[in-house]
């Protein structure tokens, strides 16, 4: 009887885990795969420059905050996960930087990182539909770590309990798990008709996005809190907005309004349907560091070890061609799903043209920050 009860309880646990894992699907909009001219691999220099700008601070955080003696008391495999890794090459750079900093820290504590003593395992994680083939094909040949791919959404559980020493995510957690339902519902006061984002929209729409962000960030932190080892670190690089400015002053608002006006031009020409524009929304949220700080405090599982605003990369934001190609590489999947493959060339030609016509002062007036946050599991 006792055995039967234990078995039934185990079964319930397994069912719970299965339910958790089923949350992993949700909306997925991976970056453009492959290595063609529109691919993310060839159009992500901005994100790379942000990672480069963060390097020194990330090194410092690892050297000062990572307690290697404590972490290695239970295992000689150092497990590291990059969430929202996409297809490279930026993920390889971030992974290499972090592993070098970890090795430096171990050496400085008198540990030998030879194969027998300390091994590194890196989990590259992204949505199931991410181009993992491209990622695996371009893994650095001289890497000194075991590599594995982990498919699924970071808004649910991805790893076993207490198994990861460092989590990293760059330019990823501003993607929401989904567009809030009410903004695409014509019967809701939060219906976002004629707009494709919350930044320039009504208070109802803004509140719906804020609520989705709050729900998502809690799911994210809760999942990581279970997966990370006690004392483990999380390093995030996030595009956001400065504290206290209206959403409409965000630089992203300038770019999304341009994209929106291109889509509306195409509606007028009869190339895309107005209904499709009305029901289209970009599932991204630009948080301020203070907003994230509030969410982390509310979650209560992590202490904030570092929070710093990074220097913005020069030039790339106001370059029309770079802006068009970067936005295309990041959003092609999302746009294709709603409007079809055949409109993309025309849409981005138009975007490029409008961006060039836009007065540079309008673009430069848009407020944007990238910030680094380092958390430690309590
Ligand atoms: C702009 S790319 C950043 C890629 C890379 N980290 C870099 O810095 O170049 C954002 C990545 O986050 C992934 N992503 C967005 N939401 C996600 C989610 N809920 N779960 C897993 N990956 C997600 C996307 O698929 C995409 O590959």
From TrEMBL:
Gene Ontology annotations of biological process type: methylation
Keyword Metal-binding among UniProt keywords: yes
UniProt-listed Gene3D superfamilies: Methyltransferase, alpha-helical capping domain, Vaccinia Virus protein VP39
Pfam families reported in the protein's UniProt record: Methyltransf_7
EC id: 2.1.1.50
Uppermost EC category: transferase
UniProt entry tagged with the keyword Membrane: no
One GO MF term attached to the UniProt entry: loganate O-methyltransferase activity
Stated name of the protein: Putative loganate O-methyltransferase
Species annotation: Rosa chinensis (China rose)
């Amino acid at each position: 009887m006792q055995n039967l009860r234990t078995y039934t309880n185990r079964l319930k646990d397994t069912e719970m885990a299965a339910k958790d894992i089923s949350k992993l699907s949700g909306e997925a909009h991976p970056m453009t795969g492959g290595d063609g001219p529109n691919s993310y691999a060839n159009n992500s220099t901005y994100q790379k420059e942000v990672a480069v700008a963060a390097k020194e601070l990330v090194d410092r955080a690892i050297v000062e905050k990572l307690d290697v003696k404590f972490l290695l008391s239970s295992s000689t495999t150092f497990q590291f996960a990059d969430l929202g890794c996409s297809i490279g090459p930026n993920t390889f750079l971030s992974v290499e930087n972090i592993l070098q900093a970890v090795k430096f820290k171990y050496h400085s504590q008198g540990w030998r990182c030879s194969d027998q003593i300390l091994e590194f395992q890196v989990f590259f994680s992204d949505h199931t539909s991410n181009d993992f083939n491209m990622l695996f094909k371009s893994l650095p040949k001289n890497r000194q770590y075991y590599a594995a791919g982990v498919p699924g959404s970071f808004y649910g559980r991805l790893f076993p309990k207490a198994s990861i020493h460092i989590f990293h995510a760059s330019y990823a957690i501003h993607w929401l798990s989904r567009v809030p339902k009410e903004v695409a519902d014509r019967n809701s006061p939060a219906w976002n008709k004629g707009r494709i984002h919350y930044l320039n929209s009504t208070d109802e729409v803004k509140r719906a996005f804020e609520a989705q962000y709050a729900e998502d960030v809690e799911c994210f932190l809760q999942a990581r809190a279970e997966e990370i080892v006690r004392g483990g670190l999380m390093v995030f690089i996030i595009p956001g907005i400065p504290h206290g400015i209206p959403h409409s002053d965000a630089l992203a608002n300038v770019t999304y309004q341009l994209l929106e006006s291109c889509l509306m031009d195409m509606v007028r020409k009869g190339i895309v349907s107005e209904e499709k524009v009305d029901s289209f929304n970009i599932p991204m949220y630009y948080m301020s560091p203070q907003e994230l700080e509030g969410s982390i405090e509310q979650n209560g599982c992590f202490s904030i070890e570092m929070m710093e605003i990074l220097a913005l990369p020069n030039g790339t934001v106001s370059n029309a061609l770079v802006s068009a190609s970067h936005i295309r590489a990041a959003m092609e999947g999302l746009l294709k799903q709603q409007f079809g493959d055949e409109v993309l060339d025309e849409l981005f030609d138009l975007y490029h043209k409008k961006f060039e016509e836009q007065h540079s002062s309008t673009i430069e007036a848009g407020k944007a920050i990238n910030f680094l946050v380092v958390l430690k599991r309590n």
